[in-house]
Structure formats: structure tokens, C-alpha cells
Please model this.
Amino acid sequence: MSFRQLKSDNGIRSRDGFTMIELMVVVAIIIMASGIMGPTIADFMKNRQLEGVRGQFGNIFNMARLRAVNQRRDISVVFFREGPRVFDELRKEFIDYDVWNPGNSPLGESDPTMWYALGFARGTSSYNPEHDNAGKAIGDGLTIPPFEKWVSKEKTTAPKPKGRARRGSRARRTSSGTTTRSRRKYRTTGLFKITFNRNGTLVFSDGCSDVPTSVYNGDKDGRPRTSDVVILQLDATPACFIDVRPTGQIRSKVVPLADFPRKRGDVSTVNTFEAKAKSSSRSGRRKSKK
Model:
């Protein structure tokens, strides 16, 4: 025998260790437990990642609306594959360098497990493989391109320095590595965006229209058919629905879909909403003033 046998005081023999059958039972229990807990842990991590992206979108929308009201000028939320950015329409520059971190965004990966759909733009997906082929689709109508590829094609002009710079003065460097003096001016034409007016109201890009809040509220089960922005996950039913009201208010909720997306960039699980599109952002602002 491989086990050391001991004789107790009452004459009954006992042995020190485990039998092979006992070890096999323990191993089987561990395998069964890992098989049950594995998907649960994976779902938990996916939900945490979804909540993180949900918070990112919420912070960007709130920042844009607050800047528009406080600074009394139009501030836009411009959509890129890595997520939305805050853009100053007067200065023609992005003003979100303190929070813009595309390297940590799961939306911007080469093979993303998460992407979003713009319901106000008839379900346009943020992940389009054509954008990875030398930026083919960039510039052909309204698109959601990767930011770096869009920048490489965008013609930018550096702002002219005002007056003579002081000797020995240094430009202050921001968290993104750019300097405040060397921030370039951009033209965001051809990109999907939502513009907050100085009174807090908003208008959508040309050819786009707001998804009504009634659609966002959903059916009796509270499951929306779509919304202004929907964040989706690969092989997962939980999705985040974001409702952007024309008054500038933002609401969001995480609701399981009836079916899960089976390929990257798929938006077929979210129904598109067809509505009368506003002719332009300028006309929308004129209507709001009236």
C-alpha cells in the first residue's frame, strides 16, 4: 500500500492520506464549479466594461452641455470609433484632452468586442472594417472613422501666434502630449455630431433626427427598440441605450437584447428608426430661437 497505516488505541486501523477515488471526486467537483462559475465571471467582466463605456459617454455629453451653457457658444459632441469627443465650434478645436484616452477604450481596438450604433443616424455602426483599409470610406459622406486615420486625412492649419512670444517662454504641455499653443484647428464636416447650443438645447448632424423618448422607454417590459446611441457587445445580450433629448437632457439604461450580436459591428439586433430628418443644424438653431 502507498499509505502509511497506523493502529489506534481501540484496535481499529486508520490510514493517513486520500484514496484515488477521493481525489478524483474532488477534481470532478472543481471542474464542475469552474464550468459553472466561468461564464458568470466573464459576464461580470463584460458588464463592468459596459458600465465603464456608459460612464465615458455620459461624461462627454455632460461636459459638452455644461461648456455650451457656461461659455455661451456652440459645443459639439463628435463621434469617432474610439468614442465621442468634445469640440468647440468657435475655436475649431477639441477641448477634451484631459479625458480623451483612446488607448484605454475597448471601442477602438482592431478587433473590438464592443461598439456603438447611432440610432439618430439610422443605426450607423462605429465599427466599419473599410476604415481599416487605407481609410477608404473616410470622406465618403458622414462616417465614424478612427480618430488617427481621420486626422491624417484632415487638412489642418496651425493657429497664428498672437504677437511676439516672450524670450524663454515655454508652451504648457497637456496630458495628451500636445501644447496649448500648438493645438490645431479642425473641420468636422463629414462626421456625425450633436451640437449643444448656448441655451443647452441641441441639434443633430445634417440628415439625422432625434429618436423619440417614447421609443427609448420601450414596450411593457421596458426594452427599447432603439435609441439615439446604443452600445453593443459581441456575443452578449446586455446593451446600453442612451437617450439624448432635444432639451439637452441625457438618460441611459442597460437592458438585455432579445438576441446578441454574432459579429463585430453588427447592429441588426437593434431596430433602426426612420423619421423626418432635419435639413441642417443651422435650421434647427433657427427653429429653437423662434
